[in-house]
Amino acid sequence: MKGRRCSKNTEKAQSMRTLNHPLNAAGLWCEVLTASAPGRPALFLDRDGAIVEETDYLCRVDDVVMIQGAGAVIAAANKHGLAVVVVTNQAGIGRGYYGWDEFKAVQDAIAAALAAEGASIDAVYACAHHPQGHAPYAHPDHPARKPNPGMLLQAASDLALDLGKSWLVGDKAIDVEAAKRAGIAGALQVATGYGNAERERASVFASATFEIRHGRSIADAMMLPILKSSNVR
Ligand SMILES: [Mg+2]
């Protein structure tokens, strides 16, 4: 069901729920899951509409539907020695529609689905801040909320990534803009999620130093230069 929201959290309940979660001082979810060799390029992945079907404020495990090809692409990225980094805006948390516990449950379901295909995510970054968010997530233009590049830059710092060789897969223009502003090589803008409506808006960010490709889905990431078979380790 589109737009279904999980139970609202009071601010107090929400802040108590954050205690066991990997939140930094700015309230950004920064979760490094695997030990990473420095200097690797990343495959940055938007989550909703890129890895999983867009359901608007995904917060229930039962609503997790993997997009076909996500597991195969992530498994290939693992084989190529890329750091697979999820970067996701989670305004639903900032707005109080659901909390980090629900976010974690959805992430665990995604990880389990990927594991069944021999694929794994190396790090997850999530930004709950939003102009209409409630404290502590009210922010007019948080540097980590896409289209700002903060999550990608935080990942680059945490994992010592080679940004210049990294790519992003996402459905929205804000994903593509964040990728460009982080200084990575390019972005694959996919038609899943909101992608069809966002294609034109996203294409304006192409430049001599930033390549944009358009694909049907994340499955087309197999054709990105960093996933060419000759690079397999
Ligand atoms: Mg998306």
Describe this structure as you would to a colleague.
The protein is of the alpha/beta class. The chain has one domain: Rossmann fold. It has seven helices and seven strands. It has helices at 11-17, 70-79, 91-94, 100-115, 150-159, 173-182, 195-203; strands at residues 29-32, 42-45, 83-89, 123-127, 167-170, 186-190, 211-215. A seven-stranded mixed β-sheet has the order 1-4-3-2-5-6-7. Helix 6 (173-182) packs parallel to helix 7. Bound molecules: magnesium ion (MG). Magnesium ion (MG) is lined by residues 46, 48-50, 170-172, 193.
Summarize the structure.
The chain has 233 residues and is an alpha/beta fold. It contains 7 helices and 7 strands; from the N terminus they run H-E-E-H-E-H-H-E-H-E-H-E-H-E.
Please name the defining characteristics of this protein.
233 residues; alpha/beta; Rossmann fold; seven-stranded mixed β-sheet; 7 helices; globular; binds magnesium ion
